[in-house]
Amino acid sequence: MEPIAFPLDLVELDSMSAAHIKEQIMGCLLKNGFTVELLREILIGFCSDGASVMLGVKSGVGKLLQDDFPGIILWHCLNHRLELAVDQALDVTGGTKDFQAFMDSLYSLYSQSPKNMRQLSECAHNLDIALRRIGKVFSVGWVASSWRAVSAVWQSYPALAQHFREASEDDTRDSRERAKFKELSEILQNRKTTLPKAHDIMTTYVKRIESFNRYPGQHAVDASQAEEVMEFKGEELRVGRSPIIDSAQFIRAVADNMKERLFTTTANRAQASVAANRKEAYNSLINQMAVLNPDNWDHDNPRFGDNEVRALCDVLHVNQQEAHLGFTEYKASGGRNIPNKMKKLLMAVDTLSPSNADCEGVQHNEQHQN
């Protein structure tokens, strides 16, 4: 049996103070049938973005909840951490601001003008290209949305180039608008604007990201070949004025930032001692969970994992004696049969959420519907 994730409720806030948010969370839970006594037994974690109002060390929402429920785990959403890691990498990598400005221009151009979108669709139809929606990139959204935007431009490249050419010569447009399309056309032909393939691998392992410096991905190979012949998807390329994006530097920066931000419970700013405690808590939690995997067992030690299981039971509010007996039976079966006494602990482990992406998605959909 696996835990079921679903949105319980959507709460409107009158204030962005931590105290008010915490009060609204508790009010929502109580309104939906939970009691304080029940929450003390079953509430095991709180996951949010890293904003100080949410995870501030002294008075964030998580800290206020932890004051009432001392055993809960405070967790900084991994999706937000990935986004911050990429954002920091962009800051230290030259040339990305020009690329960001180009992508923002594309988004504005087609999201705000049905005429431009219709003409682009006609160009795509004439070229037999499946047009993909161009969204925002490098914003406070998810890395995945940035990848979708970059991927859409990659796939729609010939249609975009044709539309820019036609619009820049369209006498029905004013001179300023024609100049804008001409500028975009020149940027699009810059051989260095198709490099940020790194977004494709933001959710993979750090080692795989680092390997892209030694073994380039297919898009990087395609971009390199296009640079050699100065042609991409049938469109002639010219050397642009924008700074060259150092893809190797970007990949290194992303990997370094991921190492710094991901292997801890929360990654917002804090004193060195607090940051060290968070990493220690993270490592301890991961080590405790690791003993539940039969692949990690030391079969020469009959008491292997006992201490970790007891500690994990304390953290997750699971009956220690029952889970320990279940773990002993689990090991005796060679990991083939999961005893009923173990299932509550395994369920609690699976219930811990590393991300609040589902909640963000609900909020995003509500905003678009209103």
Please, could you describe this protein's structure?
The protein is mostly helical. Among the domains are: 1-76, no CATH class; 82-261, no CATH class. The protein has helices spanning 18-31, 36-42, 52-55, 61-68, 78-92, 96-111, 114-126, 143-155, 157-168, 175-188, 206-211, 218-229, 247-262, 272-290, 306-316, 320-332, 340-351, 357-369; strands at 45-48, 73-76, 231-232, 235-236. The strands form two sheets. The chain has a two-stranded parallel sheet with strand order 1-2. Strand 3 and strand 4 (235-236) form a beta hairpin. Helix 1 packs across helix 4 (61-68) and helix 15 (306-316) crosses helix 16. This is DUF4371 domain-containing protein. It comes from Muraenolepis orangiensis.
What features would you highlight for this structure?
single chain, 370 residues, mainly alpha, two-stranded parallel ribbon, 4 strands, elongated, disordered C terminus, DUF4371 domain-containing protein
> How many beta-strand elements?
4
Oligomer: single chain
Largest sheet, strands/sense/barrel = 2 strands, parallel
* Helix fraction by DSSP (H/I, runs of at least 4): 55-70%
- CA-atom Rg in angstroms: 26 Å
The DSSP helix count reads 18
Structural class: mainly alpha
What ranges have pLDDT less than 50 throughout 5 or more consecutive residues? 138-142, 187-205, 362-370
Looking at the structure, what is the overall shape? Answer: elongated
Mean pLDDT: 75
Order of strands across the main sheet: 1-2
CA distance, first residue to last residue = 37 Å
Q: What is the succession of H and E elements?
A: HHEHHEHHHHHHHHEEHHHHHH
Which percent range describes the beta-strand content? under 5%
